[in-house]
Beta-galactosidase
Amino acid sequence: MSLRTSTAYVEDVSPGSGVLPPRAWYASSDATSLSLNGSWRFRLSDTADAEDDSFAARGYDAGDWAQVTVPGHWVLQGHGSPAYTNHLYPFPVDPPRVPTENPTGDHLRLFGLPADWPADGAAVLRFDGVESCARVWLNGTELGEFKGSRLPHEFAVGHLLEAGDNVLAVRVHQWSSGSYLEDQDQWWLPGIFRDVTLLHRPAGSVRDFFVHASYDHVSGTGTLRVDSDVAGRVTVADLGIDTATGEPVTVPAEPWTAETPRLYDAVLATPGERVPLRIGFRTVELSDGLIKVNGRPLLFKGVNRHEWHPERGRALDLATMREDVTLMKRHNVNAVRTSHYPPHPAFLDLCDEYGLWVIDECDLETHGFTEQGWRDNPVDDDRWTPALLDRAARTVERDKNHPSVVIWSLGNEAGTGRGLTAMAEWIHGRDGSRLVHYEGDHDCRDTDVYSRMYADHAEVERIGRGLDGGPRRRRALPFILCEYAHAMGNGPGGLLDYQRLFEAHDRLQGGFVWEWIDHGIAHPELGYAYGGDFGEELHDGNFVCDGLLFPDRRPSPGLLEYRKVIEPVAITGDGTAGTVRITNRYDFADLSALSFSWSYEVEGEAVDLGTLPVPALAPGESAEVELPAVPAGAPAGEAHWTVRAVLASDTAWAPQDHVVAWGQLAVSERRVPHVAATARPAHGNGGISLGPGVFDARTGALRAIGEVPVTGLRLDVWRAPTDNDDGAAWQSDLRPGPLWRELGLHRMRHRLDAVEAGEDALTVRTRVAPAARDLGLSTVYRWTSDGDRLRLTVSVTPDGDWTVPLPRLGIRFGLAAADAVRWYGGGPGEAYPDTRSASRIARRQSTVDDLQTPYVRPQENGARIDVRWAELGGLRVEGDPAFFLTARRWTTEHLDAAAHLTDLVPGDTVWVNLDHAHHGIGSQSCGPGPLPRYRLRAEPAEFSFVLSASGTG
Ligand code: GAL
């Protein structure tokens, strides 16, 4: 065996040595294979050369080594710790050199061949993903080494296999020259994190093959040609195809689209192997300046997906991948960008099967070079070009047979340079049937799509209208937002406003929300850990938790909002017109897979319901559909029609009756509560009483309503800043969170100016203002009563120079006890001015605990919008106008101070906020703030609540 101890290969820019050329990946065939996943012996060293390679020899005794699970990351299995940086390299930037402190994991696996392992033929050892660099030995013979963490690498090993025990030794280094190419915004997680498989390769078996399956929408035919290195036959039973490899066949066929993912089972048979194939016929083209599939332009309603599991990191099992895909389908997502590397190959099988458009991205990002103005950027340095081409080839060759993959992406945030051009040229040459994407070059020299990230609404509209200028090539290209709507914490706001632009301008072919899931790491004390929780010397905090799913894959309100905004059927109209407008927003499917229902609701409760016959409209078509007559005997009150589109039958991703789209049409307006001011304020018992209210005589503060004690009722303008309020450090100076804090809105003082017990009202005059500032809010509380109920009218008049928006405007108070919450208004989930699409008016109930949204870093959350009335803690509140309701077992100040959910400890009081208004949410954690119409300006305002004892607690 080789006793080479040199670690020069770690810093060598070459992609590797000894590995086989890349080829198509397939999950199964009739050739024998052996999974080498499972428990491996493991030894961790601090440096790349701390140990010699004698462990790779047969007979080495690793009995005292630890064990790790493969696939896995050793830092998530108790050896070392994970580290998170967004774009900063966590080591000195001196390419291609890496630190001496280079955690190195030696892995050992003994295996015997199964009894049925054929005695003849070759064998291949495949690694589907190792971060960041591996050197491999089998039975003491060195096979070679490779880099390219999320790419497959294979070695020919047939000649080395032995009938008895075999020893597979793998040395993995956390850092290598490859790390410079893998500076994606995520945890650094070394390890053998994808499958390791031994594949028997019988004589005459398939090596590489390329399925070309196009669709001609004019003739309704599919053309299939399978090119294979080893000649054979291709059969597609359902289409009566039985043809030689390399021979094209054209037959009538159904097309594949993400909406109608028709796959045909086929077999590629060579003399030595039968490989099952799943063929989808579809043609991707750039025509009329648009991305078209099967002759029709499409609209991406996408997400960026990193691979993530809160315990296993990027080592995902099939069930988790399937959960991602079904969750996407259930939430109307139709596209995935595999940010920022090719996913586990099985994920793409699922995309083919369930139907998702895929932008498949190469494992490439050199973002950290932005710190030095992109000097020394590997993508513009010829020495690195072979490594870049290797990454392109390993991506394209592995994934080229998936109908779901419609666009190749060169990588992410790698600046510009010759290496990228070389990659694009290679990809265009190898696979002319798909388009090439890369966001980092706004001139689009190498790409077929103009792509941007986080452009604000105004710019997107200019691009949509073709008013953005730019080089001629770019002006001729379709536009996508490969990232937008940064889903960090509460938000993103403004999704609907983007979607309206996408729908209004053909050139805008949609976008991909950043991102799918929070990368929180399950932690025994912190709930979910984020950057800095492992003592990293450089980190980017909770910027790694910016997904539409919480780490445990529970949908966040952001995902529910997105689902509503991108729903494939628009259900709109005027509830008094007797009809509802149904618009098919699919790009390919008609509405025959859906059935429709109506319900007529009064004061939030369904009075009657039924089915609604809707024609099977073609994509883009609309119809005005007659609603039934208003149900006879419907009670008086505020009324709505709710019309739903549901799955007519079970699908692979959701059962029959799953709601795909809905619309709510107002029929009549709400009657605003009236309280006659008939009661008189009366002094007595050290207080003032007015109807059911008891007030402090000196301060005018409310003490109780009937039997219900109330504390601390006063104006509140502070909310625990959201990640979007705080904004990212590089954003404009107009980040509201820091401005609010600078102004002191989190420490407002309430000066009492007067308590006036008049004829029919108790009036309390105050001025609410922060220390050290000359601006404030003159606030008057006017209480009246009809004997049973109290009406509070709050009048707010700003004084001073208020250029900063207010976080919120309303009152807060404490209740001694509250658990169940009932309300009539928006829900079921939270909503803010620019995240309110998914909120539907109904009668609702929940509990104080369930009203909380568990953002990994605690922040403002949980407001229910459009609340007409609510009952909690024995109190009933009616709003004039409707209000935002929030209730929690801690104060806003506690929420603001918390870093993790585990910091939130319930107190004795339930704090209730009744808000007249909230500042919008926006997406400024990495993107634009709220649009002007969602800003909460400090302006004179007046709002009222009617408060009474509800009799139930
Ligand atoms: C983008 C980048 C993503 C992620 C995001 C912010 O610039 O492409 O990887 O960092 O910003 O979360």
